[in-house]
Every structure is written in structure tokens, then in C-alpha cells.
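Q: What does the assembled structure look like for these inputs?
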Amino acid sequence: MSDINSNIPEGELTSKWTKYKSSVPLVNPSNKRTIEVIIVGSGLAGASAAATLAEMGYKVKCFCFQDSPRRAHSIAAQGGINAAKNYQNDGDSTYRLFYDTIKGGDYRAREANVHRLAEVSVNIIDQCVAQGVPLAREYGGLLDNRSFGGTQVQRTFYAAGQTGQQLLLGAYSALERQIGMGKVEMYTRHEMLEVVKIDGKARGIIARNLITGELERHFGHAVVLGTGGYGNVFYLSTNAMGSNVTAAWKAHKQGAYFANPCYTQIHPTCIPVSGDHQSKLTLMSESLRNDGRIWVPKKKDDTRKASEIPEEERDYYLERRYPAFGNLVPRDVASRAAKERCDAGYGVGASKLAVYLDFKANTERYGRIEASKSGIHNPDKETCMRLGTAVIKEKYGNLFDMYAQITGENPYETPMRIYPAVHYTMGGLWVDYNLMTSVPGLYCTGEANFSDHGANRLGASALMQGLADGYFVLPYTIGAYLSKEISVKAIPTDHPAFVEAEERAKGILNTLINIKGTKTVDHFHKRLGHIMWEKCGMARNEKGLKEAIEDIRALRAEFWSNVRVPGTADELNTELEKAGRVADFIELGELMCIDALNRNESCGGHFREEYQTEEGEALRDDVNYAYVAAWEFKEGVNFELHKEELKFENIKVAQRSYK
Amino acid sequence: MSTGNMNLTLKVWRQKNNNTKGALVDYKLSGISPDMSFLEMFDVLNEDLINKGEEPVVFDHDCREGICGMCSMFINGRPHGPKDLVTTCQLHMRSFKDGDTIVVEPWRAAAFPVVKDLTVDRSAFDRVIAAGGFISVNTGNAQDANSLPIPKMQADAAFEAAACIGCGACVATCKNASAMLFVSAKISQLALLPQGQPERYRRVQSMVAQMDAEGFGNCTNTGACEAECPKGISLENIARMNRDFASAKFLSEETI
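A:
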């Protein structure tokens, strides 16, 4: 069934990567000095790759649209990073991490990639600790772990609720070290607007200097995109305001296939929408589900305060439906269960689109332990709550503060109100085992690629994948390509391909400026988000998706005839930046709906209402859909489907159960 | 769902670029909801301006959850506004009253030149980090993470220093535009950890030298930086940096 080659090495699953590493062609040090690599994006996947390639001796240019590489959105990841260290002696292993990730992804990820990810996971922790990343420790001085959804071991390393920040600052410091040594040229406040292809190979980019508006041409023997996910296609998401698909989408339009675009992760625990002014949504880390119990009232349209609803009138629906995993079921399962309760009329809060995340039971439990540590026997409830609150504060203090700041409510006293929100995109540019896209010399790492999470990403696996790609995978695999490029001299940027790519970018910018319509960019973005959330969100069906495709096409036409972008293209113009990104989101939105319509099954984050079990669980179709849908862009915003068959040789494919 | 009922007067710094003069411009806003964040209030202002055919106010922002450090507004004379331990993006309109006049300016410091309106150039911070804010360990050389036990108190103290988001509020609030809190937080994080010891005295010298070269002022112990830091970074870090700097200059064999 496959018509694309994923270049997975032959041999046993467990030895593929080791063999690959010891047989991959190398580039000698004197050649590395003349080979230039462009990295777009400075998050975990981009910064780690830029630093590592520079350490190896390559000439590196790194680009980010923010004012500093330290701002990349990886910084906002809260909960943790998985690694198969088995420090807790609870039976973890490379195989278990591999197995949990494949199962968590609902059997829609590539075995060989995921096993490699599990193998290098342990190296990431070692590397980060060596860099001085202050991961949480126990009193004995050793690293601490906690649990995350979809697993039954404790393999998640963390730094309070700021794990992403600390890991990113580690990668950032490694990158800044190389910048200081002159090995990396850093271009901040630059946005990539085109990939330059020469003789079919990626040879550079066109980037816009966001301060001056100037378009710049940059040559590279290879180009790496570590540009993050596309969750902002929904307008409201937990992504940063600037997170966008533009770099990946421009690559897609130059021939890079876009894989599984419909696989989006709706995170179950986010702060609910408070009004039409909302510009973004804020996540409350999955780690909270270690100690928070999720419930709704048993009675429909119950308007009582949470504290007035007695224990026996509460429905802890996750514990009821999934006794084995309880509140720690994977994200897709938890999100759908919340939606199901709210749709059925059991939601809480003013909007009725929220469920409770309640820490009371575990606060009391911790308090009892603390009391017994201090020799207080039979402590009263008030003492338990006081002592327990201190424990909860130490574990999740910053998250509780953030919740209080945003909602104006005190979560130590009343349960949090939470609702699912768009958080992560499993789909992305198609890459082979080498992380190379379908354009030779164009690589894609981290969330921007599609490779490791299948149809649903497990918590604490994004940080792992971003750093695995950047520190330990790409630096090897890119050598296989670059070893054949050593005789290629740097191509002057007056080459016609650079001129033409710059003209394309300039043409789009000028068109946007000159429409001079009546509606703002945000107006269109919000309408796109509404279509996507309603018809391509947590639940999808054939009718809705067909409507959405029509709606988006009409929106695209309206955008290109009626958007208003003030100012000019040769200055700092934030509306122009947004307009370019929204234009790409509109095209991507259509492809997401096409992909969701094509996939006549439910799997992971993709839930088609027509395909569910009697109990309302996702119903896969392994006979017809055990493939990666890789879409090729065709003239005039059309898409052609290519399939990569997924072969499961080491794992028995089964209905996913967390009961 | 909340409905907006607040009326506000904004005085916002408008400046086309670093070569032109700026000025405070008045804007009237109505229908603001107390549940809006401060930046969402600016989104409303900008939508109004664009619809009126004017240019929107340019300001830096990204994650809008208080961690990326990009937002940087000087609100009523205080970086990140009136609330403690909060970034501009996490400030909500319920912290203001109906009828308030709010003055919004960019960070002001010689080392942070204005780019446009409320956006400034903080690349000096990156250059200070590039001068030594790291541990020199190449990818692939690390030993097993648990082969180096670190006492929890020490690890926690390093984490507290590492919580700095690099927003520059410390510089903006300091009458000397000193960057000592920012620089000392990174120096402390690494000085508190065993991994950071080999380069400890070299690091403090090169980072301080770069800090001075960037044109940041000196520290006169007013403590404004600590008071305004949205992440609660402690002044103790500055003391630690000064101790290490003195040790480096007087005792270390490696002076630079």
C-alpha cells in the first residue's frame, strides 16, 4: 500500500539505531567547517540541534521570530519529560516506554522511530543534568519522578511546573555558548517565508527581518525546520500567540508532504473560556491529575457551589469509567469524557462548559501523612488540610497561582474548573527515519514533524521528542546526507532560485498590504478558529467536515479580497506578520478537514462520531487505515494523498483499553 | 461569560522607531471586561485603531502565560503593573477600576533601545549569557544523571535562581538601569550546582565584563529589582555574585 519510502534500516527493532549509528557515513572535521546548516526555530528541537551541530563543527545559522531564542514556546511546557531510566525501580524499560508510546498513540506511529526515541530518552536526562538544568530532586540528592497519563510507572522528570522552561534554558545556554564562540550566527526577529530549492534540493531560505521588513537570502547545504506545532489554526489554543505553521506550510508548498494533519491533541485540563475577548487559553499541567480528582454533579444542571454538593452526589466519571487508570487516562480519552458529560448537561460554572478538578481528598491525605510524620495522631480535619495544603503548594504552587490570577478564584479552597483546549498537533511535515522530509536536504524536527506520537501524544513526551531529535537523532542522520554534499561549494544568493523565491515572498506581502479591505486579520482568524473547533475539533463527522471545507474555501476567498493590513512591508508591521500566518492557517485548515474526512475511523485525537464502540470509545479500522496519510500540495490549493503503511512487527495491535 | 463595563483612559507611548521622538498619546476605551488580561485590553484597542484606519500599538508578547518573558510594559510607573509576582500578560483588568487613567510606557534603559512603540531591544541579555551563562559540556559527554547526587536544598536554590524569565523588569525599574539581578540569577544557578564549579570564577568575570560593556548601570542596593521581579528572584543572588567576583579577582588563578 505504501508509495513512499520511510528508509527504516533493516534488522531487529532493538538494534536498528545502534547499527545505523555505527554505519552512517561521517563528514570529516575539515569538511564540516565549510558545510552550512540553516536551523529555523530555536525551541527545544531547534536550539538543541543548532548547538549540537555547531559543537560538531558545522557552520550554523539559526533563526527565530521572537526577540531571543529563549522565548520559544517550548518554554511554556509545564509538567515534565519522560525517560526510561527506571530510577524508581518500578519495572520501567526502553521497551515499556516504546510500548506505552505506541499504544498511547493508538497504533498510528512508526515502530522504529518510537523505539529510537525510547532508547535515547535516557541520554537526554544525563545531558540536561550535565548542563545544570535543575530537575527536581529527593532528599537523598537523586532525581525525583512523577506519573503522567497513559502509563503505570513513574518515569517523568520535572522541575516544578516549569520543566519546559528549564530544559529550554539548558538548550538556549548551549546555543548561546556556540553563538559566543562564533560557531552559530543567530538571527532573532526573523521569520522564514520561503524555502529555496535548487535542482530539487533545499539550499536555503528567504527570511524577513521583522524590524526593517527587509527580505534576506540565506544559503545552507541543508535546512532544518524546528518550528513547532500548528494548534493556533483553532485561534484559541494553549500555544503562544506567535506560534504558527508558516515555515512548515511554505515547505509543504515546495514539495514537503504534510502528514496526518487531522491529528490534534485537545488537552483535558485547561482554564475555560471566560468571554469573547479571549486571546488564548492556559493549560493546567497534566501533572495535576496525579492529585486532582475530576468530577461533575450527578444531578443535571446542578447550580449549587462545589462545596455544597455532598460526596455521594458527585460523579467521578473517569474513576467510574476507567478504574485501572482513573484520573490518569491519556489526554484524548479524558477530553472526550469531559465533553460527553458537559454535552449531556452536567457541566459546571457559568458557561456549563467545565468540570471540576478537585484536590481536597489528596490534600487531606497528604496532611494526614505530614501529621503522622510530626507525631500528631488522629489529627482533626482542619490540621490535615493545613498541613496538606503546604504539600500541594510545594508541588504545584506556580500552577495554583496562575489559576488564581486568571480566574480570580482560590483553587486551594474551591475546586478548579477546567475544560479541554487545543494544545498540541501530532501531525506535521512527513519525515523519513532520518527526519528528512520528502524534499532532499530539508529536515524537520520536534512538534513540526509528524513522526513519533501517532494519533495521540502522551504527556511529557513532547519535550522528550524535541530534545531527542535535536541532541541525539538529527546530528547523526543529517551526516548521511551532508557526507554526499562535501564537494558542493556555498551557492551565491544571486542564483535565480533565490531571486525567484524572494519574489514569491515579496508578492504575497505586497498583495496583503494592497488589499486594503474592511476586516482585521484577527477577525478572519477568529472565524477560522470557530469553524475548526466546531467541525474539526474534539468530535468530527462527515457532514460537518464537508461543510467546514466549503466554509473555509469561502473564508479564504473573503480573506484575500477583504483583509485590512495597515502600514507598509518595509517596517516593523505586526499586522502584516499575522496576516501571512493566518493566510497559511486557512489553507492548512482546509487540509485538516480533508484529512479528517478521508480517515473513516476514530483513533487517538481524531474522533469521528460515525466510528465509535457502544461505550463511546474510539473505533479504529486497522484493515483500511493503518497508514500515515501524507499529503502533497498541488497548484491552486489542492492536495494529493500518499500512503505510508504502518507495520507492527513487535507490538500486537489491540483495541486500546484503560479500564 | 463576562460582559465588559469598564471605561478607561490610556496614555500610551508611541514612537515610530529608534530614530524618531516618541510621545504619550491618549486613547479612550469602553466596554472593557474585568476578566480580560491587560494584553487582551490592548487587543481591543488595536482592533479599534485598525478599524479607524490607524496603526496599531506595537508591543512584545508571546506565551501570554507568564513564562516566556517577552511582554514588557511599564504600567503606571511600574514594570508589569501594580501587582506583585505577575507579568503584564497575567495582569487582569480586575486589578483596575472603572474610570482609571493608565499610563503605559516601554522599558527605559540605555542598554534596551526602543524599537517601536512599547517594544524594546533586549538582545544585550543574550550577549551576557553568550559570554558565560552556561556549562561547557558538548552533547554526548554526560555521565549518568544520578551519579552526581545534589542535596535537595542546593538543587532547590539553584532552581529558584533559574526561574528568571529574562524579561528585564529589573533593569526597567532600577534607577541605574542595572542588570545585576538578571546576571546574578544565572551566575547563582550555576554556582550553586556541582556541575558549575569548574568554570565558576571564569564565568562570573566574563559575564560581569559583558554586562558592563552593554552599558547597564551599577547596583546601589535599592532593592527595586527584587520588589518588581515577576518571578521573585532574590537579592541574595547579587550578593553571591559580588562574593564570587571578588574571590575571582583576588583569589582565582584565572583572571580575565
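The domain at 266-419 of chain A is CATH 3.90.700.10 (Flavocytochrome C3; Chain A, domain 1).
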